[in-house]
Design a protein that fits this description.
Residues 1-38 form the PH domain. By secondary structure, this protein is an alpha+beta fold. The chain has three helices and seven strands.
Length: 151
Amino acid sequence: MPTTLEFDIKATKEQLFTHLESEEHVKKWFETLEKLQIESVMHDGAIRKGSPLTMEVRSGKVSQTFQGEVIAYRKPELFGIRLQLTHIIVDLFIEFINKKNGVQLQCDCEIGIPEGANQVRARLRSWQVKHLLYTRLKRLKSIAEKEKVSV
């Protein structure tokens, strides 16, 4: 079930990329995020393809922890993660493309349903993820455009 979202943003690729790889910045546009930890697969602390990640997200009074990994990383153009959520696996790729008056954010999201998963719950969860992704990326656009950066 692939989905592609595109947003034109008046910002730089570098500015936007910072909003993806820093927990402090991610929390600004993903309000329910409580913790984002990306572990380096090397000892230098740099994020690389294959780096494991942990996300803790709050929904009401309940917090859930999800495991995943970085599956694409080309700073400042491409960031991809795979998340193991309840009933589904989400592959998310965010790419930044220079445009005349800023950057186009292109988000490709592929949702897989593992064998043995509850199909009804998986479909509901897929819809929730797509809706959440759209609303959070709109928030990212709003926050990035309010920052003072020359394009």
